[in-house]
UniProtKB/TrEMBL annotation:
Keyword DNA damage: no
GO terms assigned for molecular function: 3-isopropylmalate dehydratase activity; 4 iron, 4 sulfur cluster binding; metal ion binding
Native source organism of the sequence: Roseibium limicola
Manganese listed as a keyword: no
UniProt similarity note: Belongs to the aconitase/IPM isomerase family. LeuC type 1 subfamily.
Keywords: 4Fe-4S, Amino-acid biosynthesis, Branched-chain amino acid biosynthesis, Iron, Iron-sulfur, Leucine biosynthesis, Lyase, Metal-binding
Name of this chain's protein: 3-isopropylmalate dehydratase large subunit
Sequence positions that bind [4Fe-4S] cluster: 349, 409, 412
Annotated InterPro entries: 3-IsopropMal_deHydase_lsu, Acnase/IPM_dHydase_lsu_aba_1/3, Acoase/IPM_deHydtase_lsu_aba, Aconitase_4Fe-4S_BS, Aconitase_4Fe-4S_dom, IPM_dehydratase_rel_enz, IPMI_cat
Protein function: Catalyzes the isomerization between 2-isopropylmalate and 3-isopropylmalate, via the formation of 2-isopropylmaleate.
Subunit comment: Heterodimer of LeuC and LeuD.
C-alpha cells in the first residue's frame, strides 16, 4: 500500500525534479508572478549574464505597490515610483513577459490578479517575490513567497531550490456566526499560535467553517498564513474552486478542462496522512477580532479591552508588548469599542476583492463617514473596481463620504502617496500592523471589511454583530 500523503506532500512530489542527500529539493515552478518591487535586480542579473527567461508564458507581471490610486491621467507625483514602474515595463518588454500596466483594467494587486485571470490553478507550484503569495494556496496550489535572488533563479530556470517544510493542519469546525468572517478566523488563528507558530510548516486549513467559505474568504485565510510564520497555506480544491476558475481567461478549456478537473479532484489529504502539528478552532464561538498592537498576533475580541502586558510572565515579551502599546498610544483596560479612529482603509490582497467590498457596502446603509474620519476604498484590481461599479457599490461608498480609488496596494504598505500621518489611527482591512507600515508613526488596527466600514461611520470600533441588529 502506498503511504498516505497530505495535500502538500502530493504537490511537492509532483513537482520534485531532484532531491539531494541533505534534503534540498529542486521544484519545478508552474507559475511565476512578478511585480515592480522585487524584480529589477533579478532582471538585471539575467542581463549581466546574458540569460533569457526560461518560460516567459509561465510568467505574468503586474504593477501594484507603487502606483498612485488617484487619477492616473495625471503625472505620478513620486519620482522613485516612476523609475520603479518604468523598469518593470522595460524588463517585461525586453524579456517577452506579459505585463498589465497601470492603465490596463486587469491591473491590480498581484495576488488578486493571478486568481482572477485563471493563472492560479489547483495543484500548481506558484511563486512571486512577495510574502503574500501564500494567498494562492486557497486554490490548493503550493504558493511560496521568494526573495529577489530566487526570482532571478526562477526566471532563468523555472525551478526553485527548497527544503521540504513540515505539515500542519488547522482544523476550523463549526459555523461562523453572522458578522464574523474569514478575516476573524485567520486573526484568531494567529492570535492563538503566534507569529512564529507556523515557522517551518506548510499549513493546510480544513473543517466545516473553511469548506463553507467562498473562494474570496479562503484567499483571505491563506493570505495571512505568512503572518503566522508559515511557508505557505493550503486549502483543498472543491466544487467552489472549480466554479470560480471555470471560464477565466487563462483557465483550461474544453477537453483540457475535464482532464484538469479530474486531476484537481485528487488533490486532497489522504485518510490517515500524518500532520506534524494540529491546531483546532471552533468557528461557532468566534467574535469579530481587532488587533491592538504592532504584530498580527496582538488580537482581541471587539468586546474585549486592551490587555495589560504586566500579565505576561516572560520578560522580553512583556517589554515588547509594552512598547507596542506605547507605539499605539493605548492604555491597558481601554474598551476596544471606545478606541476612536482617524482613518479607514478598505482594500489590499487580504480584503480587496468584490465580496469584501460588497460586505463593507452592505453595512453602510444610510450612514455617513464620521466627521473625525477620513476613509478610502481601494479595489484590489481594475476588474474588481469595474464589477463594484456595475453593482453600484462605488455610489454607496461615495455617498457615505468614502473616497473611491484606483486599484493597487495603496495604504496597505504606503509605498505610494496613500499614507497615515504620524499618530493617526487606522482601521484597516490589510494584513500587517507593524510599526510604520501604513506611514511613519501611523497606528494600524487590523479588522474585517464590515468592521472597518462600521468603524468609519461610528468614528470608533463597534461590534458589527450589534450594529447589524440596530441598523435593521
Ligand atoms: C514589497 C513586498 C516585497 C512585500 C512583501 O513581500 O510582502 C509587500 O508586498 C508587503 O506586503 O510587505
Ligand atoms: S496589498 Fe499589501 S500585503 Fe498585498 S502585496 Fe500589496 S503591499 Fe503586500
Amino acid at each position: 500500500m502506498t503511504k498516505a500523503r497530505t495535500l502538500y506532500d502530493k504537490i511537492w512530489d509532483d513537482h520534485l525534479v531532484d532531491m539531494q542527500e541533505d534534503g534540498t529539493g529542486l521544484l519545478y515552478i508552474d507559475r511565476h508572478l512578478v511585480h515592480e518591487v522585487t524584480s529589477p535586480q533579478a532582471f538585471e542579473g539575467l542581463r549581466m549574464t546574458g540569460r533569457k527567461v526560461r518560460q516567459p508564458s509561465r510568467t505574468l507581471a503586474v504593477v501594484d505597490h507603487n502606483v498612485p490610486t488617484t487619477d492616473r491621467s495625471l503625472p505620478n507625483p513620486d519620482p522613485d515610483s516612476v523609475i520603479q514602474i518604468a523598469a518593470l515595463a522595460k524588463n517585461t518588454e525586453d524579456f517577452g513577459i506579459e505585463y498589465y500596466d497601470a492603465y490596463d483594467k486587469r491591473q491590480g494587486v498581484v495576488h488578486i490578479v493571478g486568481p482572477e485571470q485563471g493563472f492560479t490553478l489547483p495543484g500548481m507550484t506558484i511563486v512571486c517575490g512577495d510574502s503574500h503569495t501564500s494567498t494562492h494556496g486557497a486554490f490548493g496550489a503550493l504558493a511560496h513567497g521568494i526573495g529577489t535572488s530566487e526570482v532571478e533563479h526562477v526566471l532563468a530556470t523555472q525551478t526553485l531550490i527548497q527544503k521540504k517544510g513540515k505539515n500542519m493542519l488547522v482544523q476550523v469546525d463549526g459555523q461562523l456566526p453572522d458578522g464574523v468572517s474569514a478575516k476573524d478566523i485567520i486573526l484568531a488563528i494567529i492570535g492563538e499560535i503566534g507569529t512564529a507558530g507556523g515557522t517551518g510548516y506548510v499549513i493546510e486549513y480544513a473543517g466545516e467553517a473553511i469548506r463553507a467559505l467562498s473562494m474570496e474568504g479562503r484567499m483571505t485565510i491563506c493570505n495571512m498564513s505568512i503572518e503566522a510564520g508559515a511557508r505557505a497555506g493550503l486549502i483543498a480544491p472543491d466544487e467552489k474552486t472549480f466554479e470560480y476558475i471555470n471560464g477565466r481567461p487563462k483557465a483550461p478549456k474544453g477537453e483540457s478542462w475535464d482532464k484538469a478537473v479530474a486531476y484537481w479532484k485528487s488533490l486532497t489529504t489522504d485518510e490517515g496522512a500524518k500532520f506534524d502539528k494540529v491546531v483546532t478552532l471552533d468557528a461557532a464561538n468566534l467574535p469579530p477580532i481587532v488587533s491592538w498592537g504592532s504584530s498580527p498576533e496582538d488580537v482581541i475580541s471587539v468586546q474585549g479591552v486592551v490587555p495589560n502586558p504586566d500579565d505576561i510572565a516572560e520578560e522580553n515579551t512583556r517589554k515588547s508588548k509594552w512598547r507596542a502599546l506605547e507605539y499605539m498610544g493605548l492604555t491597558p483596560g481601554t474598551k476596544i469599542t471606545d478606541i476612536e479612529i482617524d482613518r479607514v482603509f478598505i482594500g489590499s490582497c487580504t480584503n480587496g476583492r468584490i465580496e469584501d467590498l460588497r460586505a463593507a457596502a452592505a453595512v453602510i446603509g444610510n450612514g455617513k463617514v464620521a466627521e473625525r474620519v477620513s476613509a478610502m476604498v481601494v479595489p484590489g484590481s481594475g476588474l474588481v473596481k469595474e464589477q463594484a461599479e456595475a453593482e453600484g457599490l462605488d455610489k454607496i461608498f461615495k455617498d457615505a463620504g468614502f473616497e473611491w480609488r484606483e486599484p493597487g496596494c495603496s495604504m496597505c504598505l504606503a509605498m505610494n502617496p496613500d499614507k497615515l500621518k504620524p499618530g493617526e489611527r487606522c482601521a484597516s482591512t490589510s494584513n500587517r500592523n507593524f510599526e510604520g507600515r501604513q506611514g511613519f508613526k501611523g497606528r494600524t488596527h487590523l479588522v474585517s471589511p464590515t468592521m472597518a466600514a462600521a468603524a468609519a461611520i461610528a468614528g470608533h470600533f463597534v461590534d458589527i454583530r450589534e450594529w447589524q441588529k440596530t441598523d435593521a
